[in-house]
């Protein structure tokens, strides 16, 4: 286990915020995780776990041991006539896993193409896009208990998945470190093309729905709507889409006839991007921080923004949306 000191985290977060870690460790296997936990205790420093850095905003240097989980490997855990259970290390880039599944002809995660981050973060925040969430194909994961250093298994039910959350973001936050994830993918395909512009994009491309074409359509849509973090610092969607009661939505509909809403099991989901756009924030810039000109749900770093600059901007947006619509926007990005 190699321990580095005073390491810049600029290359390890998609916002490109230049904050430092007091100590930095990369875990390439489960034993590295255990040793990092033990060593952080001897230093009397907190242990901060870093995945792909695509869902985090650093606002200060970390007086901590930063552990980047970099466990690799993709393999078949089980297989049947209809399904394959695909096991991947927590450090595998999510898109690499999607590409692997597509190449093998296994469906279930093609709608989740081009989502930044690592496999380990996917169940933690229950990633979702274009009508599909990770919980729909999730089988189980293994994670190291920070207290006992033992490896434990969590099945789908135990993860308590919700909208962009799981038990690891609330009740078990900072209690476990995910090491491997197993997904149950399909050999017999049932495609989901009804959400967003997927079907429309397939028709424009002249493609019949299959795993590869749906992935290409989703990537094309996301590239049009979302800026590439390699070109401009961002963490994708900064806010969650709020869910309102039907009564609250109907009341808003009378005030704002054009407000869109999508009925779910928990109420009516409102696109946060619509709220931010209607409030006039799209394309606004404040020094080195701003709101993307095409996608108001994305806050960006034009190159030299501090994490605090982006956080302050997000607070202004939250306050404005609350005053105009009576809706509180919840951040999807983790602020550190």
Description:
The longest helix has 19 residues, at 307-325. The strands form six sheets. This protein has a five-stranded antiparallel β-sheet with strand order 6-7-12-10-11. It has eight helices and 20 strands. With 336 residues, the protein is α+β, with helices and mostly antiparallel strands. It has three domains: 3-69, Uridine Diphospho-n-acetylenolpyruvylglucosamine Reductase, domain 2 (2-Layer Sandwich); 74-225, Uridine Diphospho-n-acetylenolpyruvylglucosamine Reductase, domain 3 (2-Layer Sandwich), CATH 3.30.465; 233-335, UDP-N-acetylenolpyruvoylglucosamine reductase, C-terminal domain (Uridine Diphospho-n-acetylenolpyruvylglucosamine Reductase, domain 1, Alpha-Beta Complex).
């Amino acid at each position: 286990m190699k321990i580095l000191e005073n390491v810049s985290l600029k290359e390890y977060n998609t916002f490109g915020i230049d904050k430092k870690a007091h100590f930095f460790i990369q875990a390439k296997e489960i034993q590295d995780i255990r040793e990092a936990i033990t060593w952080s205790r001897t230093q009397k420093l907190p242990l901060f776990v870093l995945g792909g850095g695509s869902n985090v905003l650093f606002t200060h240097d970390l007086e901590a041991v930063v552990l980047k989980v970099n466990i690799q490997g993709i393999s078949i855990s089980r297989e049947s006539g209809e399904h394959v259970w695909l096991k991947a290390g927590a450090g595998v880039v999510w898109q690499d896993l999607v590409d692997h599944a597509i190449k093998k002809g296994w469906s279930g995660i093609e709608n989740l193409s081009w989502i930044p981050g690592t496999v380990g973060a996917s169940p933690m925040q229950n990633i979702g896009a274009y009508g599909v969430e990770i919980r729909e194909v999730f089988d189980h994961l293994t994670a190291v208990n920070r207290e006992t250093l033992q490896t434990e298994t969590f099945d789908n039910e135990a993860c308590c998945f919700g909208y962009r959350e799981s038990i690891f973001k609330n009740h078990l936050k900072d209690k476990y470190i995910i090491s491997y994830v197993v997904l149950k993918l399909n050999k017999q395909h049932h495609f989901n093309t009804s959400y967003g512009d997927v079907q429309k994009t397939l028709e424009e491309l002249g493609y019949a729905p299959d795993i590869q074409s749906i992935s290409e359509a989703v990537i094309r849509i996301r590239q049009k709507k979302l800026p590439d973090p390699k070109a401009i610092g961002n963490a994708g969607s900064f806010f969650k889409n709020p869910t309102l009661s039907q009564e609250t939505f109907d009341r808003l509909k009378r005030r704002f006839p054009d407000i869109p809403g999508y009925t779910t099991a928990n109420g009516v989901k409102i696109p946060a991007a619509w709220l931010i756009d209607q409030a006039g924030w799209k394309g606004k810039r404040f020094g080195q921080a701003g709101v993307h000109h095409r996608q108001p749900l994305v806050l960006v770093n034009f190159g030299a923004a501090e994490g605090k600059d982006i956080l302050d901007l997000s607070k202004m947006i939250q306050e404005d949306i609350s005053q105009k619509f009576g809706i509180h926007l919840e951040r999807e990005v983790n602020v550190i």
